[in-house]
Amino acid sequence: MKVAIFSAKPYDRQFLTQANETQRHELVFFETRLNETTAPLASGFAAVCVFVNDQLDEPVLRALAAGGTRAVALRCAGFNNVDLAAARTLEIDVVRVPAYSPHAVAEHTLALMLTLNRQMHRAYNRVREGNFALDGLLGFDLHGRTVAVVGTGKIGFEVAKIMLGLGCKVLAHDLHPHPDGERIGLRYAAIDELLANADVVTLHCPLTPQTRHLIDAGALRQMKPGVMIINTSRGALVDTAAVIEGLKSGHVGYLGLDVYEEEADLFFEDQSNRVLQDDVFARLLTFPNVVITGHQAFFTRNALEAIAQTTLSNLSELAEHGRCVNQVQG
Ligand code: NAI
After folding, report:
1. 215 lines ligand 1 (CB under 6 A)
2. Residue nearest to atom 23 of ligand 1 (CA)
3. What is the pLDDT of residues 220-273, one digit of tens each?
4. Residue 211 in contact with ligand 1 by CB distance below 6 A
5. Ligand 1 within 6 A of 152 CB?
6. Pick from 178, 138, 177, 143: nearest CA to 162
7. What residue's CA is closest to ligand 1, atom 30?
8. Cα(136)–Cα(147) distance, rounded to whole angstroms?
9. What are the residue numbers of the active site?
10. Cα–ligand 1 centroid distance for 218 (angstroms)
């Protein structure tokens, strides 16, 4: 298939080109994000390959269809950026990579927890400046603490196993509890019970109309003072303005984010020479007890190999059979 690859970074080029050695697609890489302005670049391409912040709303899908595009291949798991109803009407197939390395995201989640708890981000700078004082670096044992895992799919389940391995109690909430949940030692409970009892709340459910701002001012009020909140799922699960108020009052003790509500205009680019225009994000950066990474939880060699392989196999399957096991149904 002739494939227009949007938001292409050097690492996308490297891993997709490598994976294509065993496939026969014609890959053309575009650095720009896909949106209404850039959609004409895909004219004449049977497929577009996109990432988390590419825009696939109705006008963009309509433009793609007009240019002859019949398939959208997401090189990620989440598909909240695609108007699936419009895609169905326009007869555009949408395929994704449902699982590539849940371990990559689960391990990054742990990295955020430990960084925040043991103040690694501050300790690193202190030692480099010859400041060996320990004041302000006091942490707590994760062992014995209660961790709430919201969403126990592929990633959340791995996080639960890691936390159980550290000796934490794990409370979980999911619309569809994992069949092996009890066997590994986690306990499912209602979301209110999770929020009220957790020392750490970590989010691993998808962004849907039901989960948008799952962590808002009301949810924060239910949480223990000093709670740690981790979000490696999708930014809009958290009402950032409400969490900032929680951080200012001290009610939220720690915040670890790999995703941010308004990340589309920030992440994946070097913005270090520009004046930051997002005042909410700028405020987040002022807290010593906030650690933010720029949507890098997935970013391991293993995950990129798997993403590239599955993305191209998805397109081969569509080309050969007109359907694909990893198709997203609208
Ligand atoms: P998954 O589909 O395996 O699991 C999601 C789980 O959430 C399912 O068990 C589902 O039943 C549950 N769920 C759905 N609605 C819920 C609700 N209202 N309350 C509680 N649970 C609910 O997905 P997976 O692979 O574990 O990924 C989870 C999320 O992680 C993705 O949706 C994606 O947004 C995010 N992600 C982030 C990455 C990063 O680099 N930061 C990389 C990959 C995924």
Report:
1. no
2. 153
3. 999 999 999 999 999 999 999 999 999 999 999 999 999 999 998 899 999 999
4. yes
5. yes
6. 143
7. 233
8. 23
9. 234, 263, 295
10. 22
Provide the whole-model pTM. Answer: 0.93
Residue 1 identity (one-letter amino acid) = M
Compute, in degrees rounded to 10, the torsion defined by CA atoms 14, 15, 19, 21.
Answer: 10
Query: What per-residue confidence (pLDDT) applies to 62?
Result: 98
Q: What does the pLDDT read at residue 265?
A: 87
pLDDT of the residue at 264: 87
Q: In one letter, which amino acid is 248?
A: K
**What is the distance between the alpha carbons of residues 241 and 59, in angstroms, rounded to a whole number?**
30
CATH of 102-292, one of 3.40.50.720, 2.60.40.10, 3.40.50.150, 3.30.1360.10: 3.40.50.720
> Which regions of the chain are under pLDDT 50?
none
CATH topology of 2-100+301-321 equal to that of 102-292? yes
Beta-sheet strand order (sheet of 71-74)? 26-29, 2-5, 47-50, 71-74, 93-95
- What is the maximal distance between C-alpha atoms in the chain? 64
Ligand 1 neighbourhood includes 298 CB (under 6 angstroms): yes
- Give the residue whose CA is nearest to atom 2 of ligand 1: 153
Q: Which long-range contacts (CB under 8 A, 24 or more apart) does 133-137 make?
A: 136/288
| pLDDT score for 214 | 98
The superfamily CATH assigns to domain 2-100+301-321 is: NAD(P)-binding Rossmann-like Domain (3.40.50.720)
